């Protein structure tokens, strides 16, 4: 036996809100576009990305700590209204689905 396993390694990222490591598939990628934080659920938008759990608690922590500005290397404050709306919609949809 070569000692190799057939299971593939799962890429991990760190949530900028709670600073916990999680599988990339569990986190939401965020990209800065024209001074605003934009959700990138498919992970295909160009540019530097930051990851956060799609939960209001982690989002609030990241905003309070100014983690998006630092992680995305933005020159000034970023607008998070669209991101907050997206996270709230996804959490409501998850609760409605049995």
Major sheet description: 3 strands, antiparallel
Query: What is the gyration radius calculated from CA atoms?
Result: 15 Å
In N-to-C order, the SSE pattern is: EEEEEHHH
Termini separation comes to 44 Å
Low-confidence stretches: none
Overall geometry comes to globular
Brief summary:
This protein is α+β, with helices and mostly antiparallel strands. It has three helices and five strands, in the order E-E-E-E-E-H-H-H. The strands form two sheets. A three-stranded antiparallel sheet has the order 4-3-5, covered by helices on one side. The protein has a two-stranded antiparallel sheet with strand order 1-2.
Topology record:
Blueprint: E1 12-14, E2 21-23, E3 28-33, E4 36-40, E5 49-52, H1 56-64, H2 67-71, H3 81-96
Protein name: DNA-binding protein
GO molecular function: DNA binding
Domain YlxR: 13-75
Structure overview:
InterPro entries: YlxR, YlxR-like_sf, YlxR_dom. This is DNA-binding protein. Keywords: DNA-binding. It comes from Streptomyces lomondensis. The structure is a single chain. By secondary structure, the chain is α+β, with helices and mostly antiparallel strands. Helices cover about 30% and strands about 20% of the residues. The protein contains three helices and five strands. It has a three-stranded antiparallel sheet, covered by helices on one side. It has a two-stranded antiparallel ribbon with strand order 1-2.
